[in-house]
Predict the 3D structure of the following.
Amino acid sequence: MTQWLAGMPKAELHLHLDGSLRAPRLLQLAAKHGVSLPYKTVEEVEAAYNFSDLQSFLDLYYLGASVLRDAEDFYLLMKDYLEVCRLQNIVHCEIMVEPQTYIPQGVELSVVLEGFDKAIDEAKTGWGQSVKLILSFLRHLPEADCLAMLQTADPYRDHFCAIGLASAEKDFPPANFQTLYREAKDRGYELTAHAGEEGPPAYIRDALQLLSVSRIDHGVRAVEDDELLHQLAADRVPLTVCPLSNVRLCVYDYMSEHRILDLLEQGLCVTVNSDDPAYFGGDLLENFAALESDLAMSKEQALLLVRNGFEAAFLPSEAKIALDEQLQDYLARHP
Ligand code: ADE
Ligand code: ZN
């Protein structure tokens, strides 16, 4: 089945670009800029990626992102991920970009986007890659800082399809970001937010009600609230689930405990994503493979998950129809 899924056209909707920075590139850029890191070899980097919770991961994630300094670095980062898209037939991707992460290093948004634009243009002309960017905010920072970044992004409004909310979830509830989401809605952005990863189901409800999001990133803790599950299923609110991430960040002790297929069977619009593939041991295809090996996912379930990825995308209906036709074409050749 993994071969069948490898060739299948797929979407990825939950990917932090900084989380795709692999050890060799991390070490190369650290050396380029003379950034001192607590590891010298790829093996040492990978040995350090042993997390006990979200915060223990975020500490190394922000340290890793601190090596990104100039437009060439951002070009290489984007190019590396888009190459994964090409290899894994991720025909449409929605990538979370977090410009607040680069502020301590003094990197301007224009520099970040200069690098990204070059790589995206190459992938679009090279093999017709479909790419959208999500302007993702860091919820451990004050809302005023997020509002300042929203304004900084105004001249680049057409670069982004949506805004998102990431970083430490516990103690940083959706309620803190109501002005940010209202301002973003006024500017015409689509709205998504991380909720119910480590935080309680109430954060999912609040993201929907207080922030008016149309999609939830993670959302797996909805399983603790039956009424919420019914609402998510009835409204087909997409959950961008990241199975390997949930195990590596100890949301579940084992993949066999993951509930993604139960949610699928209950009619929720769950999708499969990699979150931070360089840190969690696999890209999109490896996330699907884990569901096959540890949860006995059927071909029908795999196909539903892929279709949900297209349904949940921030794309106009004509583009979704075109993606579905690509999928039908593949299935006709590879039933
Ligand atoms: N930033 C990068 N990965 C994240 C995750 N899994 N949860 C919250 N913020 C993140
Ligand atoms: Zn995430």
